[in-house]
Amino acid sequence: MDVNSVTNWNVPLVWEGTFDPIVIDAIYKRMEPRIAVVVFAVGKYTRFLKGFLESGEKHFLVDFRVTYYIFTDNEQDVPKEIDLGEGGAISVINVPSANRWQDVVLGRMKWATFAIDKQIRSKSDYLFMMDIDSIFYNHVGAESLSRLSAVLHRGYYKNTSREAFPYERRPKSRAYIPPGEGDYYDTAAVWGGYVEDMYKLVKYCYEQSEEDAKNNIEAVWQEESHLNKFLLYNKPTKVLSPEYLWSNYDEKPADIRVIRISQLVKNYKDVRPNHGQSERVVDEVGEEGASVKTICVKMEVEVEVEEEEPQTAASYAVVCWGCAGTERDRKRLNRLVRRASSVLDGPLDSIGVVGERRLLAMLTSIMDNTPHLPHETVGALTSSFSGRLLQPSSRTER
After folding, report:
1. Are residues 104 and 224 both part of a single domain?
2. Are 304 and 203 contained in the same domain?
3. 208 shares its domain with 288
4. Which of 201, 246, 244 is nearest to 224 (CA)?
5. Which of 140, 183, 317, 346 sits in a 20 to 30 Å window from 389, CA-based?
6. Do the domain assignments include residue 184?
7. Is 193 left (phi over 0), alpha (psi -120 to 50) or beta?
8. 35 in a structural domain
């Protein structure tokens, strides 16, 4: 298998085929570890609880003692009839509602810090932080356990230079990572380890976020930015491949032999507070080191940031507007892109170029998915000579 199975600091990098699941599960079961899983299901995110819990019971540390700690503002929506394994349990922890999805993300560290300290640490040996809008598809066993286990982000695990990692690059933030530094980019959607080490890390993310708030700044990827800062200088003892957190938005590439956990496709405007909108931030567009996200947020673009790879300012804007929108909108965004180019010291593609690229990717996705409803129509309108789409000859074809 043509993948690295050891990091440059000589700890395991776990892929399918690098371990024997039967042997490693048997070794850990003798120790009878107590596993805590912390998830947040605030607002409409309770709709994902049933799928997460049921699939977890089929695939996640089966025959281990697993307790799911569900933080929610809607206790009545927590499923009551989940068939848990022996020693399994569900514990509901009530938390306040939030008006912004950013507050939900940042609040996770606050409420998890308090709960781990007062309730969880005395009852658990290992703890995992996971996103509730995920589902288990295949075995996740004791190979995932270590003092501190990180998961490679699916968008940046190959063919990505450290300069392209979406680290926090503004020195004003406590999550700041200088250019030229970094090993990997890890996701904050799945991470775990010894409960005491996780408590230290969760508390760190919470406290650093609070320090940023005092300085009127919010890390570009909230707690994920602080997580990556911590892991850069406090190396994880095991790194899990993107098998352990993929996305249903993306096709499975050849080097991903099995998808174990995957994020679900969802409508952010529907499930998130403030309809998934990003907020205005205090940073000036021209501030040295200002993030691409910040630049576009100032335009009040509704950014589905978690499912997009932040390669350019234009790619953010196209998430919402694509090639559509008024000519005035496109001119405003292209002016913004040009300003972003000067901040980032490099040329960025225009809205039109990025929009066409996205549309081509969407059409390719349709063509690769034969059950897709428009597939026959698109195929019928494709020139057998050039491969290009022909103009429909009548209104009905449109």
Report:
1. yes
2. no
3. no
4. 201
5. 317
6. yes
7. left
8. yes
Rounded CA-CA distance 276/293 in Å is 14
Task: Specify the number of domains making up the chain.
Answer: 2
Q: Are strands 89-94 and 65-72 parallel, antiparallel or unpaired?
A: parallel
What single-letter amino acid sits at 355? G
Query: Which of 172, 165, 187 lies closest to 292 in space, CA to CA?
Result: 165
Q: pLDDT averaged over consecutive 10-residue blocks of the chain (398 residues)?
A: 83 96 97 97 92 97 97 93 93 85 78 95 97 96 98 89 90 94 94 97 95 92 95 97 94 93 81 51 36 39 38 42 58 72 60 69 61 59 52 48
Give the active site residues.
Answer: 224
Distance CA 251, CA 362 (A): 12
Q: What's the CATH number where 218 sits? A: 3.90.550.10
* Segments forming the whole domain that contains residue 310: 278-367
Owner of token pair 């996780």: 198
What type of residue sits at position 312?
T
CA–CA distance, 20 with 22 (Å, rounded to integer)? 6
Taking the C-alpha atoms of residue 299 and residue 312, their distance in angstroms, rounded to an integer, is 15
